[in-house]
């Protein structure tokens, strides 16, 4: 099972790569999404429950909306804190702060 972090429709519309990846992966594996956009759950997962919910997943689609130097959101770090492997589409500068062998870029 994969998880997509896509909490807000407006921000998700800005990430064509994330949307394409979500749909293509969904053809092969079950992908769950607890946000407002592409929600596959019976309810929207509240922010305060994100880590608990992510901890049930092996992988997390943690694509940022933009990829320019220095721009990194909470998405990869939420996955790390929950014990999941983030699948990342983000600026590579964040690698200096994490184990480079602990994610999929």
From TrEMBL:
Name of one Pfam family that matches: Glyco_transf_10
GO MF entries: fucosyltransferase activity
Domain Fucosyltransferase C-terminal: 17-102
Superkingdom assignment: Bacteria
The keyword Transferase is annotated on this UniProt entry: yes
UniProtKB keywords: Glycosyltransferase, Transferase
Record InterPro entries: Glyco_tran_10_C (IPR055270), Glyco_trans_10 (IPR001503), GT10-like_C_sf (IPR038577)
Span of the signal peptide: none
Keyword Glycosyltransferase found: yes
Gene Ontology terms: cellular component: membrane
Chain segments annotated as transmembrane: none
Family: Belongs to the glycosyltransferase 10 family.
Descriptive protein name: Glycosyltransferase 10 family protein
Organism annotation: Rickettsia amblyommatis str. Ac/Pa
């Amino acid at each position: 099972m994969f998880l997509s972090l896509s909490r807000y429709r407006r921000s998700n519309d800005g990430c064509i790569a994330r949307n394409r990846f979500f749909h293509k992966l969904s053809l092969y594996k079950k992908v769950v999404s607890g946000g407002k956009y592409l929600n596959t759950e019976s309810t929207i997962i509240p922010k305060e429950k994100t880590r608990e919910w992510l901890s049930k997943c092996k992988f997390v689609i943690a694509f940022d909306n933009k990829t320019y130097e220095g721009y990194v959101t909470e998405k990869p770090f939420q996955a790390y804190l929950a014990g999941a492997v983030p699948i990342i589409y983000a600026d590579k500068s964040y690698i200096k702060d994490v184990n480079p062998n602990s994610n999929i870029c």
